[in-house]
Hints:
Methionyl-tRNA Fmet Formyltransferase, Chain A, domain 2, seven-stranded mixed β-sheet, elongated
Amino acid sequence: MIFGKSKxxxxxxxxxPEFSVHALNAIDKSKHEVVAVFTxxxxxxxxxxxxxxxPVHERAEELGIPVHTPEKLKGNSDAIAEIEKYDAxxxxxxxxxxxxxxxxxxxxxxxxxxxxxxxxPRWRGAAPIQYAIWMWDKKTGISIMQMDxxxxxxxxxxxxxxxxxxxxxxxxxxxxxxxxxxxxVVDVLNKTAAxxxxxxxxxxxxxxxxxxxxxxxxxLIDWDLPVFNIERQMxxxxxxxxxxxxxxxxxxxxxxxxxxxxxxxxxxxxxxxxSSGHVACGQGTMLRLIRVQPENKSxxxxxxxxxxxxxxxxxRFRGEL
Length: 321
């Protein structure tokens, strides 16, 4: 038996977004004790710019766990002293958003382990789920990594794969991978409690790729690309930054829902071909618009956008101003 009568671990949890909450909940329900949570400080959010606590912060308070919100860890002697005072066995990190200096990595008895949403060394960095979809990967997954000072460069303790299908968007994969990460990290904690620090396999640097933090401009459609590429981009950028284009007047048009058409065309890429919402894409392919959001307007179906003269048949959308 792995679990046996092993002593529960004292865990420091470090995370910030909703993705991390899944793991926090799982560890809280396990035999292990989350002694403290470290998360990003409250920040202004959304259009109203009201200061809001992170999802992990809010959940930790609901669970009655002490919360710390340092702006940085490197060179922050107060934050490091806080970490050391908890005398933790291990730290679990999930999308925390801060690099951990060596003195933090070495503070817990078994170091720090990270839940990363890719099959490392593929897609290190900030947007692994999005890039796996966008770049035509057939599968992605979760890696539990023993952290070192690099960016997602530490040796991998365990991995689990998830196939990317034609229905896989970032929104869908986010929840699947968050739940998988929560399950895997509790399993690693159980094995660590029973057997000590878990063995880990160094990453092969020759296969490393990086998923940079997404920018709003990553959602801008290049109509010269085949519709298959554009559809991948749509799923990768859902829910943020979404995909959009420019009208001939230079106004943004967000494409909320669309699908691949099996028809072909000789029209130039970007042209709105008909009142059914077909837009010409590269290599004679077509995308059919279902719901759109004109600049400064609410989301509407394509027919309403056409009737409201937000779009016009035979106009040509642009991938740049």
